[in-house]
Design a protein that fits this description.
Blueprint: H1 2-18, H2 22-34, H3 53-61, E1 65-70, E2 75-79, H4 82-92
Length: 93
Amino acid sequence: MEEERSASQEKVKLFLGRYPEYEKTLRLAVAHEESAGSSDGQGWQWHDVDTHPTKLIRLVTEGIAKISLRSRQATYYLLRERGTVKKSLKETC
């Protein structure tokens, strides 16, 4: 389990190395998921993380985020491993 978490953390670090512009997006996603307003578990939308919707697809294809709910009006996302992302962000500072 620890090896899996370490591999995931390394994946996030490599992703941020290739795409540093996603650091703000991931920080906002972690903050949104940890806030009281997201206790429903629905997730966050593109405007919650200040990122164009098409850019969020890269987070999904890289396995960092997942689509938690999709409707005609909106798509909601959640981080797959919030703790791992949070730890990776702390280490990249």
